[in-house]
Amino acid sequence: MTSADTGAGAGRWGAPGEAHRLIAKALAKLVAQDPAVPPHPYLSRHLADHAARGDVLDDAHVPLAVLPWESSRKVRTLLRRTGDAGQRQEWLEAWAGIEPFLGDAGPGARLTSLHLAHHAATRRRTPLSAVPAAARRLAGSRLTPLWSDWSAPDNVLAVTDTVIESLAHTTTSDGRHLLVTGDSHGTLRRWETYGAPVGAPSHTHGGALQHLLPLPDDLLLSGGTDGTVRVWNSARGQLLSEAVHRPRTWVSGLTLLTPADGPPRVLVAHSDGHLTALDPVTFQVVDDGAARLPSLEAAPAIVTGVGLARAQGTALAVAQGRSVRLWRPGRDIVEVGEHPDEVRAVVDLPAPNQFVTCDDSGHIGFWDATAEGGTVTAAPSPARSLTALVAVPVDGEPAVVSAGADHVLRVWSTGTFRTVGGPLEGHTAAPLALTAVPGDAPLVVSAGADRTLRRWRLAGHGSRPAPQVRRSVTAAALPGRSVTAGPLLVAVADEEEAALWNADTGARVPLPAGDTTVTAFAWTTASDGPLLVTAHSDAGVQMWSVGPRAGLDLADAPARRGTLLSHSLPVQTMVAFPDGGRTLLATGGADGTLSLWDLGRQSRLACWDDHMLSVRDLAVLETGRGPLVVSAGADGTLRRWDPATGPVGTPVHCGQQGVHAVAVVPAAPGERALVASGGEDGTVRLWDAGTLRPDGDALDAADGPVTALTCFPGPDGRPHLAATGPGGTVHVWDVTARGRVTRIVTGSPLGVLQARPADGTDPDGHPVLLVAGKAGLSVFELNLGDY
Known about the structure:
Elements: H1 3-6, H2 16-28, H3 41-53, H4 75-82, H5 90-98, H6 107-122, E1 143-150, E2 156-159, E3 164-171, E4 177-183, E5 187-192, E6 197-203, E7 209-215, E8 219-224, E9 228-233, E10 238-245, E11 251-257, E12 265-270, E13 275-278, H7 287-292, E14 302-307, E15 314-320, E16 323-327, E17 334-338, E18 343-348, E19 354-359, E20 363-368, E21 373-378, E22 386-394, E23 397-404, E24 409-413, E25 419-424, E26 431-437, E27 443-448, E28 452-457, E29 473-477, E30 489-494, E31 498-502, E32 508-510, E33 518-526, E34 529-536, E35 540-545, E36 559-565, E37 571-579, E38 582-589, E39 594-598, E40 603-608, E41 615-623, E42 626-633, E43 637-642, E44 646-653, E45 659-665, E46 674-679, E47 683-688, E48 699-700, E49 708-713, E50 719-724, E51 729-734, E52 739-745, E53 750-756, E54 768-773, E55 776-782
Antiparallel strand pairs: 1-55, 2-28, 3-4, 4-5, 5-6, 7-8, 8-9, 9-10, 11-12, 12-13, 14-15, 15-16, 16-17, 18-19, 19-20, 20-21, 22-23, 23-24, 24-25, 26-27, 27-28, 29-30, 30-31, 31-32, 33-34, 34-35, 35-36, 37-38, 38-39, 39-40, 41-42, 42-43, 43-44, 45-46, 46-47, 47-48, 49-50, 50-51, 51-52, 53-54, ...
């Protein structure tokens, strides 16, 4: 590097930050503009770190082209550690949103995923006509984004491969703040507060670690479902000893008790109601302390120490079932109140004599140890089970954060017993553990069943506007090219509304579907133009005229054409298809029935109830004798149905636990037609369409259940399958070669996946894919090209 490169004399190198800034600037010039060109390994490993250390972590110093090759896997943690210094970070932020979920995806899949994430983050609801032509494509990416309505939260600290069941903050003896987690496999992990892992995981080879108790001098206790309390050095992640082992029980609580007239004790509660006292230095069982402990019912006990006023030490709050009791050393245990449902958590508050509880019905209780009573308050409607609590100051006022089975965190004032500000949304499954990180602006960190660690900044929470709620997409669909060759229409619904979007112009019209949630869509044609069919949460099915075939400008709301009623529970899947000059509709419901309708006459032709559980998905198989309907059921079976005669052959039990999705794979030249099934076990299995016998090995998504499948022709007409599910990744396979073509990582659970084949009249056309789920919806062209 020359002096011209640095632009400064040697004196400026005295500041480490300036040195890193100049290094990042020089290295950025070495990155090729084409993201398909691999950079030097030093760039992929260290460029982002140099930029962060030089306070220039931005798109200019860490160019887009290096990100698909970025191998340090810490762009997200660097962004969170350094904060927003005002630089342009669009591509870096988009990369940070998917980085934890990329796994072993190759550079091509990483670039494609980054392209979609950037479009979703920067061009929400932007019509295609408003996107400059030069910005629609990205060299090396396999997709061209067409339309996005996506708003995934961006507060993920880390993604784990197991469910985190316990979480704690600890400060080491040298002043370092760490997060510690215990998971469902008995593994202890340590993390920086910005999400970077610290050291190697520590394995117990025992049960799940459900309780963590930090103690002074870098000590940490863990309690597991194997009935064992273990002692750790939290600074080194080292297992020191096993303090207690109570066979055939699990540890239901851990706390530190400091009596006013005696030495401190660690109290261990087990699932049989037994309490054990430990010396917090030697971790030996203390017999004299145990003799003074209260006698509890033979049921799991949740315990916490409650600080008392006027140097009275601590009392013990105990929850068993719905009962909340309080014990002071040397006195009898007394009941202070009762919850409407089983208590899930008990937490001490900073104010003397105060503690808080929550239960399975969504109620939260605020208790005063002096008055030996309290107030139990209902959570905001709808009441759902509360799973965890943590005390934390918010804008200088004492508060409690609760986590619920509705995936939401809420902030409560300990003075008014009411919620403060709006809900904190982001988790895609129930948060299971919470902890607070102290500081000038305290943070709350949550661990969820979605296998993510997330952090929440609460400064100004009560005064700032509540964030816009992103409601999960419940149904979405594109019309086939046979329905309309005009603009790109998108039908989409969430829990509260349904609408049609014209992605070419940005025009939107609501679907006047009433108060019911749309659970499924199907497009087809009628004599006067496109027909949209909607299924609803009240188990009804409605038909809508969208507009004349040539117009489709969405100037007017769709007109209702009729209503179909037969299912006793909501319809989960529908498919419309032609048969002998008429248009038929097959509907599959949560009631386990499959109904067949003549849409022209608006009459039901048949109803079959052979599935033992709900019908999850439907597809249509074209044969030389006419169409067959193929159904996938939660009972783990695939079944075929002739519209005229009913069941065809015997069902096949797929061996995938439940079957969530089905797709028909048309016959490739010289091949047979196949049926693909997507299972709870995360596999896609292929079956001979004529016999439903297995065909080859399963395709493994390897990231959770497959809940949506679609098939479309690729280059040379070769069939391709795309699959997705809660893992949030779209996997694409070439069925003929039985090989994965690419994967597209979104970082948020997906439940809807649909493909529209390429326009056969356009030699440069590509199939269009729609994906939708927890964070919204994206539509894009997929360029399979050469692979």
